[in-house]
Amino acid sequence: MQKRPRRTPRTATRRQILDLIRTRAPISRVELAEITGLTPAAITHAVRSLLDEGLVEESGLRERTGGKPRVMLTISPRARCAVGVQLGADWIVVVITDARGAVVGRVRARGARQHEPAAVVSTVAAHVDTLLRATAIGPDQLIGVGLAVPGTIDLEAGAIRASRTLPRWGGHPVRDALSRALGLPVVMDTDATAAAVGEYWSGRTAAASAHCTLYMGAGIGAGFILAGAVHRGAGGNPGPLGRLHLHRSGRDPGPALEDLAAPHAVAGRARAALAAGRASAITLTDDGDPFRDFGMVASAAVHGDPLALELVGESAHYLADAVVTVADLLDIDSLALAGPSFSTAGSLYVAVLENRLHSDLYAAGSQGMTVTLAAHIADAAAVGAAALAFHEDPGAGPLARPVRAPTSAAASSPMGA
């Protein structure tokens, strides 16, 4: 792959301005100054830099306020593109998105559970090259690569520390390995955090003060955007909900949330119920693939099968136990469900979580709580990973903390309206 041309280093101000234009376009320079509190000169300098780089363009619209018409700014969608990679035990997803977050190319392949990291990295790199050729996107258009991974991570080393679903990947420097394979800089984060960033980048959480994206693939995690800033905690690993023990009995911690609510747990209970003679339309796989079995259960639940509805409802209530706790601790006002496990029966999970949050949340009486499916349910981490590349120079450190716009009539409408 050809080497990318050198570009002007990004500043915190440019990141703030780019985020606001991305989520609130069309927007004027005057509005940007009002929202950020920056001087007109600082806004002009940042906007000019973005215009020169081709990331932003003047839309041709004018806002008349009684004085001189204001020129409105918007994102230039195809001037820059980014690659997003979602590494999962059961599925690997590679996408290319434009600067407005639209997916212009996508590849979905079987996951990394059974394969060595080096072989998987080579396969991912081949998928990226295939997508770039198919979409005719050149190196000069690429702003970088984002990588979303399961488990706990070492952000500095660019490695997965530990993952229950990808045990072979512990300590493997996947970020640098993928960067070498592609000849491009790569930024890495957890799949849940990437999915949360993707929701923020889409503008769907602009009205939220405290947003959580609940991500369920083979495992369960959560990503947080608090006051417009990504929350990474002390070590870059917030929200490992799958490891929570919520049903303790004496000194026995009991099963973790993933052992109760994740796809493998639902599939296991379905197999046991059918073996015990329960009547159901569920058809499980011959090889016992838990993720495919879960898909069968989810599909049967959507079609009204009583056993499947029972199993999905049980999983959703276990998730709700954890989410209510997290929402109370962080005073969450927005929740999105993301990940391949929500792609079929996500609406059933939304209904249970919405009811439980509205009935059990301690602060429910003082403010509203929105519960939605993510914009890109199954591919949310891949699309969010691409958004990471737009937010920061890959490998340069933590995600930018963009300024949150003050609440307005437009911004305060329910998410998804």
Structure notes:
With 417 residues, the chain is of the alpha/beta class. It has 3 domains: 12-75, Winged helix-like DNA-binding domain superfamily/Winged helix DNA-binding domain (Arc Repressor Mutant, subunit A), CATH 1.10.10.10; 81-201 and 378-391, ATPase, nucleotide binding domain (Nucleotidyltransferase, domain 5, 2-Layer Sandwich); 210-373, ATPase, nucleotide binding domain (Nucleotidyltransferase, domain 5), CATH 3.30.420. The chain is 38% helix and 20% strand. It is built from 12 helices and 15 strands. The chain has helices at 12-24, 29-36, 40-53, 117-135, 174-182, 191-201, 257-261, 263-275, 290-302, 306-330, 346-360, 380-391; strands at residues 27-28, 56-63, 70-75, 81-87, 91-98, 103-110, 142-149, 152-154, 159-162, 186-190, 210-216, 220-226, 229-231, 334-338, 370-373. The strands form 4 sheets. A 5-stranded mixed β-sheet has the order 6-5-4-7-10. Strands 13-12-11-14-15 form a 5-stranded mixed β-sheet, sandwiched between helices. The radius of gyration is 22 Å and the shape is globular. The two termini are 42 Å apart.
Helices and strands in order:
Elements: H1 12-24, E1 27-28, H2 29-36, H3 40-53, E2 56-63, E3 70-75, E4 81-87, E5 91-98, E6 103-110, H4 117-135, E7 142-149, E8 152-154, E9 159-162, H5 174-182, E10 186-190, H6 191-201, E11 210-216, E12 220-226, E13 229-231, H7 257-261, H8 263-275, H9 290-302, H10 306-330, E14 334-338, H11 346-360, E15 370-373, H12 380-391
Parallel strand pairs: 4-7, 7-10, 11-14, 14-15
Antiparallel strand pairs: 1-3, 2-3, 4-5, 5-6, 8-9, 11-12, 12-13
Helix pairs in contact: 1-3, 2-3, 4-5, 6-12, 8-9, 8-10, 9-10, 10-11
